[in-house]
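Input:
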Amino acid sequence: MAHSKRIESVQALLRRKKIDALLVSQPQNRRYLSGYTPIDHNIGESSGVLLIPARRPPLLLTDFRFQIQAENEVSDLEIMLYPKGLIALLHELLPDLAISCLAFESQYTLHSVAAQMQAMADTIGLTLLPVNGLIEEMRLIKSEDEIDKIRRSVLLNEQVFQQIYETIVLGQTEIDIALSLEASMRKLGAESPSFETIVATGRRSALPHAIPGPVAIEANQPLMIDMGLLLDGYCSDMTRTFVPGTRNSKYIEIHRLVRKAQQAATNTIRAGISGAAVDKAARSIISDAGYGDYFGHALGHGVGLAVHEEPRLSSRNRKHLRAGMIVTIEPGIYLPDWGGVRLENMAVVREDGCEILNQDTTWLDI
Amino acid sequence: MAHSKRIESVQALLRRKKIDALLVSQPQNRRYLSGYTPIDHNIGESSGVLLIPARRPPLLLTDFRFQIQAENEVSDLEIMLYPKGLIALLHELLPDLAISCLAFESQYTLHSVAAQMQAMADTIGLTLLPVNGLIEEMRLIKSEDEIDKIRRSVLLNEQVFQQIYETIVLGQTEIDIALSLEASMRKLGAESPSFETIVATGRRSALPHAIPGPVAIEANQPLMIDMGLLLDGYCSDMTRTFVPGTRNSKYIEIHRLVRKAQQAATNTIRAGISGAAVDKAARSIISDAGYGDYFGHALGHGVGLAVHEEPRLSSRNRKHLRAGMIVTIEPGIYLPDWGGVRLENMAVVREDGCEILNQDTTWLDI
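Output:
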């Protein structure tokens, strides 16, 4: 069972670092280690934490609202409820478990909560240790089983796109199309979108983070759709740009340039190359054509249980890619007062190259 | 202009507390003070912060992705971008502004970010001061203009409910109905749902936080819908429970009891009563009828720019309500293996009573 293996790895790591236990509060980390699926609607409304002692079985700590779900999803873990809140429970529980050094996730703990934990720690002689990215580091390299799940997420996302693409007609608004896409995702079995769907028409496609508006789609102008879904816990993320109606020569020029940049980057990806080098492969093509100032974001990011995770394909990431990482490859050119083109695929890093997870490339080569 | 008055109140408070500036990162607090609307998709992906010096004009600090939106929405504030990140910008900016004591929102700052800020502060001799609920406290009492916005949000929410109610047929699933409601919200002008819509049929209505599933709605069984939307920044929140088909005597008994508890609580609400006393007015009716163990949550919560805010109508809140607060009144009875009934209205606390914002009470008295 993947979860128990992962827990064992964490416990071995804790023992090496001489930490008695780790508190895991980040939702994707919780899910990775236990299968417990609830998200937190915001960081202040937690749906529970995993307490992983170095030398004892882990526990899931939550409240009554999630009791039934917890019992269904993590039947192999002990579940404890905290009617008086997490910190009151830890105050009682940690001394009983002989835990005197507790690590917590600094990147998913509020300053106010850490302060309350520290006050509690002081009363029981507990040492608190903030840690960064411990579980995220484990999540970087995907197993073949995880890659399979991500592949299915990518394919379902393409199916949704194709289904709704065929219903697009002039007179529809960006919101109409976004809602159709999100409804189709859920009807075809996705848990939810993996981020807010972007649909941007005409000049609005020059805004990399456009929110769909009550704006009718324009004939003969770029239409950019950036969409993803969550299937069995794993995310997909894909951008397609096309023209309802007739493409003009400017559109064809920009689209082909973006596609060329995407292919150049794709050809460089393999274990051992840096994120920066992959970014540069795409960026230099766009810069050489005179559009360097109009590609204002990084080339790509990791995808897994979270839609944005490490590694970044950006000029700042000097670290080497490793086999089993999954990244997006999404160059774009955004011209104010004209519009934008972004094309985004997902790929698995392999020892000697990469494997594109997208199957339908109809939209890419024009 | 409401925003500049609010900023002035914050600045006066900072001067009284001898704080040189406040960093506002919580999205609803940002919007309350400036009109800047972006949400943060998660706390680690901020769309900007307000820097409010005690004796100078405030600034909005953000990154290039939000530049155009910021310029459109907060034209009266200076906007600065942070290409190297917020902390690098503060490191340069704070000494220039002669800020040597900076407060930050402890309840909306990650421990990891606070640690980085502290390291930066140490290099420039800055004192960092965590604060809790400073702006939230200002947001507690709504102006008549805010009450008007919330009223419109409530009425639009009722309109959406009514529109979709008339399309509900057996054979539909919980997901179908939830998607129809959320699509209708956005088509009628809402920014978004204010929380994930709950649609729960039959026994599933006994789960207070049911997630809509691919489950066909059951004839002659309770159907619970808890829904809300965001209009012009302000939230609504409403629950209706009804029976598609024929109600049996058990349903009628439970529904009438919940309604009686709701009315008893409503009759007690006025400035000066405690949240606990209002909760008790509803709870004692349900307990006296023998269902006390099946009403497992608090009676209500504040609503405003956030869908869950202070004050709580719960047994733990001894504080007095004040005129201009807005609360939900939502008693429920949840019977495992049978189902649940929850009825939820929203009300404004007034000096001598309360004003129910809901207009359509068709669903309440059966």
